[in-house]
Amino acid sequence: MSAASGFRPRIWVPGDWNALFGFGTNILVNVLVLTGLLRFVLQMPDAIVFGRILPALGVMLCLSTCYYAYLAWRLARDTGRSDVCALPSGISVPHMFVVTFVVMLPIKVATGDPVQAWEAGLTWVFVQSFVLMAGGFVGPAIRRITPRAALLGSLAGISITFISMSPAAQVFSTPVIGVVCFAVILASWFGGVRFYCGVPGGLVAIAVGTGIAWASSALGFGYGGLSLDKLLGSVANFGFAFPVPAIAHTFGGFQWLGVILVTAIPFGLYDLIEALDNVESAAAAGDAFPTTRVLTADGVISLAGCLLGNPFINAVYIGHPGWKAMGGRIGYSAVTGIVVLVLTCFGVIALMSALIPVVAILPILLYIGMLIGSQAFQESPHRHAPAIVLAMLPQIAAWGKTQIDSALGAAGTSAQAIGLAKLAQVGVLYQGLETLGGGATLAGIVLGAITVFIIDRAFTRAAAFAAAGAVLTFFGFMHGEGIGIAHSPTVAVAYLAVAVLLVGCARKAEAPAVAMGEAAVEAD
């Protein structure tokens, strides 16, 4: 069915309520976390946090969610389908921590000036935006040549580690709230249980968790860390603030360009690959969105946000199949953005953080991680399952290294200070984790693709991906901590050797086929 047939998709359906509360609370968690990073880690004044950054963030998120709702409406109209679900989008969570701890915090410590740290963050996003916009034109080609199992396998690694593990740990750290809310989510979104008057499961989970937290606070147990004093103090941040251009601040951060480029370019490429993964995930769920439009929109919208004062980049989110499975279609995306814009411009975020325990929201992220992790196996041929497992390993290694670094850092030391040999003696193979987990998303895709093509006996294609892995590793895009030359030369040589081996396998595989063809001719 074409657009000329007159089909007009519905903007809102009942399932959008579930997706709104699920996706909306996901976004809310991220906004609450970054607000805490700005106020307590970077110690930025509330005037900048609530008066400049959060309103600019709200505008960026509103532009993003409304644009992807529009793309979903167009797809539904052009195909005549009523089950199209908009791509979820929001603040890139890994980048939220990178720009805070790797870019802004060192500059804040060195200068003692939070404004300079903010400016460096803006410049970081400025550079990444152009990487994304340029990548939008090569993204479709990458999708065409890369097996689905490799793309979804790398994504599954992210979902199990960086998406699911922290929420799962926090859920079981406060089980009276977290486990009960998780059971509500499972019963509603996996079990199909309908609550009274059709109230969405996500809203029920948050209400139950909030009720338990406040009741326990009244009884003196204090589950969830809520208090009346914090709630009353949060209203001090009420007031209307709309973002104004921060162009001078954005270009003011160029004095730190050398520090910024070390991470901005590789993480811009990370965003590109992750967006490709998420577009592929949506296609596997039945919604094929134009890759170039998605990627360039991420760059343009991020650029608009940073020019208004937001130092956090926009990204297409993991989780489209989850929101679609719970009934989300078009409206949930746009309404989420509008609600976030209102909350950020009127200073309501502080009140929300004092009213709702975060542990009541985290089970929703755990649910999304479960869905994405399982999708890689469900939407790929069964014979490619080993490739999916291999594609997940770099993300697991990167997550493990992060846990080790954080633990040692809290103890005032590091892996290098202790000695890698001593760690290896007790089974902590830090150097291996560091090498395997460097550029984890790209490494997972390359390793997964090589394995898929070996399984399918397409040895020439496998060799091409191995050769690409050698080049990417040599220049630091994989198995290294940053772009450069010969960061991991031995790994690059290993990939090159694999490429040569696979070329030999291809010739050996072709020889019997030629011989069989000649025999058939002689028989005729």
Beta-strand content estimate: under 5%
User: What overall geometry do the principal axes of the alpha carbons give?
Assistant: globular
Q: What's the number of domains? A: 2
The tally of beta strands, per DSSP, is: 2
Helix content: over 70%
- Structural class of the secondary elements? mainly alpha
Question: End-to-end span in angstroms?
Answer: 50 Å
Strand order of the largest sheet: 1-2
Specify the number of helices.
23
Biggest sheet record: 2 strands, antiparallel
Uncertain ranges: 513-524
Order of secondary-structure elements = HHEHHHHHHHHHHEHHHHHHHHHHH
What Rg, in angstroms, do the CA atoms define? Answer: 24 Å
Overall residue-averaged pLDDT value: 85
Structure description:
It is a single chain. The chain is mainly α and 524 residues long. It is globular and about 70 Å long. The N and C termini lie far apart (50 Å). It has 2 domains: 11-378, no CATH class; 382-513, no CATH class. Mean pLDDT is 85; it is low at 513-524. The protein has helices at residues 15-41, 46-79, 93-111, 114-135, 139-145, 148-173, 175-190, 201-218, 228-234, 247-252, 257-284, 291-308, 320-325, 331-345, 349-355, 362-378, 385-410, 415-418, 420-425, 430-437, 440-455, 459-474, 489-523; strands spanning 89-91, 314-316. 53% of the residues are buried. Helix content is 73%, strand content 1%.
Structure, briefly:
The chain has helices spanning 15-41, 46-79, 93-111, 114-135, 139-145, 148-173, 175-190, 201-218, 228-234, 247-252, 257-284, 291-308, 320-325, 331-345, 349-355, 362-378, 385-410, 415-418, 420-425, 430-437, 440-455, 459-474, 489-523, and strands at residues 89-91, 314-316. The protein is an all-alpha fold and 524 residues long.
